[in-house]
Write a structure and sequence with these properties.
The protein is about 0% helix and about 55% strand. By secondary structure, it is mostly beta strands.
């Protein structure tokens, strides 16, 4: 398995709740301009909660 560490310039997190499921999307932009994306799907009866501090 290969791993790497990136310096992060910005992170955008969004959450969409649809009828039967929801999506949490994370977009990370590195200081080199590379964009990394992560999408997490969840069922409506088991929602994902997000807290901002």
């Amino acid at each position: 398995m290969e791993s790497s560490i990136h310096r992060v310039n910005s992170i955008t997190i969004s959450k969409r709740d649809l009828t039967d499921f929801g999506i949490v999307e994370v977009e990370v932009t590195t200081t080199d301009g590379e964009k990394l994306f992560l999408s997490c799907f969840h069922d409506a009866d088991k929602p994902i909660t997000m807290e901002v501090e």
